[in-house]
Amino acid sequence: MAGTWPSSQGARGVVFQRYSVFPHLTVRENIVAAEGFNTRSGWLFGAAKRAARDRADAMLVRIGLNHVAGQYPASLSGGMQQRLAIGQALTARPRVLLLDEPFGALDPGTRGQLHDFLTELRAETQMTVFMVSHDLEEAFKLGDRVLVFDKPRWDPQDPGLYGATVTYDFDARDGGMPHQHILDRYPSLAPASEPVPEPA
Q1: Strands 165-171 and 177-178: what pairing?
Q2: 84 pLDDT higher than 60
Q3: Domain for residue 76, yes or no?
Q4: CATH of the domain at 123
Q5: Where do the DSSP E strands lie in the chain?
Q6: How many distinct structural domains can be found in the chain?
Q7: What residue stretches are annotated with the ABC transporter domain (predicted)?
Q8: Are residues 101 and 26 in the same domain?
Q9: Which of 67, 106, 130, 195 could form a disulfide with 110 if both were Cys (CB 3.0 to 4.6 A apart)?
């Protein structure tokens, strides 16, 4: 991104740990609304709205909510509402997708289906995905690079005294090997106090 944050509408999609959908819209309308966000007025009309409804129905099939398309979020289970939030964020085809433990409330079967869905969509759109997860197995399954945060120092008298930092940096595509070899390609990333290894 050349050091700048994308400024265009639809550049970022966010799915929070706690599902966040519009309670006054039906399931289908929640998906359609995501496309409307990319227009100047925020609304779709006529042929554009009909086409968006067709795409929304296809998305609902993929996330397993087509049978409740006309219902409101309050009538859905927590897992179904989270699936709706994920579908809503992905409908806008963002360049960057931010996920805050999006699969934590889902049953194993649904979680596996959405893992596959997210992997397929990312390959199709080439979007960048940042995901927060407490499940390392999930992180290695879905990620290219896994950063592990932990507290290197702990004060029992004041647990909040020291913050977390990156303690491990793994290349998930390279058998989980540490990412230290990245310094060979980008020597400027090495700390000033450490000598940069010469390329072989």
Answers
A1: antiparallel
A2: yes
A3: yes
A4: 3.40.50.300
A5: 12-15, 96-100, 128-132, 145-150, 165-171, 177-178
A6: 2
A7: 1-176
A8: yes
A9: 106
Using one digit for the tens of pLDDT, what is the confidence trace for 119-142? 887 887 788 899 999 888 898 899
- Measured N-to-C along each axis, helices 27-36 and 46-62 cross at an angle, to the nearest 10 degrees, of 120
Identify the pLDDT of residue 80.
87
How many whole angstroms separate alpha carbon 112 and alpha carbon 119?
A: 11
pTM metric for this prediction = 0.66
From 119, 143, 167, the end of a domain falls on 143
DSSP β-bridge partners for residue 129: 97
User: Per the domain annotation, does 96 fall within a domain?
Assistant: yes
Whether 93 and 127 have beta carbons less than 8 Å apart is answered as yes
Question: Helix 46-62 crosses helix 78-91 at what angle (to 10 degrees)?
Answer: 130
> Which amino acid is it at 120?
E
Find the domain containing 149 and state its range: 145-200
* Residue among 73, 173, 140 nearest 87 (CA): 73
Residues in the chain: 200
Helix and strand numbers (H, E) in the chain are: 6, 6
| Residues 122 and 162 placed together within one structural domain of the fold | no
